[in-house]
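User: My instructor asked us to take a sequence, write out its structure as tokens, and then describe one feature of it. I'm not sure where to start. Here is the sequence I was given:
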Amino acid sequence: MFTSDQSRRAFLKRSAALGLVGGAAPFVTNLAAIGEAAAATASDYRALVCVFLFGGNDYANTLTPYDQPSYNQYAAARPNLAHPRDTLAATLLNPATGLPGGRQYALGPTMAPLIPIFDAGRMAVVLNVGTLVQPTTKAQYTANTVRLPPKLFSHNDQQSYWQASNPEGATSGWGGRIGDLFQSGNGTSTLTCINAAGNAVFLSGRSAIQYSIGTNGPIALLNNSSTLFGSAAAASTLRSLMTGTNANLFANEHATISRRALDTFTQVNAALASAPVGNFPLFPSGNNLAAQLQIVARMISVSQELGARRQVFFVSQGGFDLHDNLLAQQPGLLATVSNAIRAFYDTTVALGVADRVTTFTGSDFGRTLQSNDDGSDHGWGGMHFVVGGAVNGRRFYGTPPAIGNNTPDDVGQGRLLPTISVDQYASTLASWFGVSNGNMSTVLPNIGNYNPSTWNLGFV
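Assistant: Let's start with the prediction itself. The structure tokens for your sequence are:
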């Protein structure tokens, strides 16, 4: 039974969490110098970077069937949305081990920047990933004899279930729960879970608190202003009021949060001064996802100075809810994502930390194979990518789904019934990060529903 003191502490902790949220690349001399320092001093450093595609990415035009029989089925299912086959030749994926039955896939034509990473064995493709509670067959789904994620095909709920194993309203995500296990090993626990995209339940832990950072650096309290209405004394007085101890419980907790925000800003700002933007030139301009990944790269480059050994990052790109204008809009979005991930990976190589940084994609859900005129509707399973120096790449993981409507893998309109759960995808990443099997159910409450032999899919 909880005491009133325990309940108060839990409430304050939750309040505190809310209050804090706020071709080959050239080898760059300055970047390499930073990398030499990182490689020499951060031997136990690891980072996970989640790239979340908000809106539900259309899987079929991201990873497109290419062998002729499969392409014919794909084109027949969405004749007005299908990529012309000749535009896919340059992005055909050539895995180290071919898929059964001669199946082949190509990335969308604008995703060409990722091909060199795949060919180098540092990118893996994970097939038909989606939210599940437990292993599910189509017969079980049809007969409603198996537990399913609540509110399937709902954006908010499936975003939350993907990130947290619970629908909208979840208070902690699996990235944050990983942070719970490792934050005590970091010099500043606040810098364990870092969000460069605003706020996401993915990075909220039961005790770990996500720290929001802008694309230019830490977000300053009161804009770091030294004056208030032109008065330095007024600014100093306000800061004293905000950070001084107080007999009132809530005021004192607010002061604690304010002091932590000010102290962390000073610490991070000072560290990033040694890693200026000019030392990270590989990121394209006019690409907000690239800007988010650039600040992540800068944070990683000063991880030793910040005392960080384990960090989880979150970045995102929106705009994927394409019920209309899919052919006009998705290629540009996928180009944005591909160019940003390529720049980030190349930067980790130059920093000498590529084998300690693993980047992976996520999304609300996949979409329907069948078009609704010039777009696709909400689906379920989708295709995802994992990139990094530790990735066992140039491979596909999972089973290629049957293509079409009313197949064993389809629950309607070409919505894929996932054959790999987010839990299995996440547990593979968590295992690489250092989470033991004994702690895996703490991070992923549904993982016990799967055979332990499938907890690590081997892609990293």
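For the description part of your assignment, you could build on this observation: The chain has one domain: 25-220+285-454. Try explaining in your own words what that tells you about the chain.
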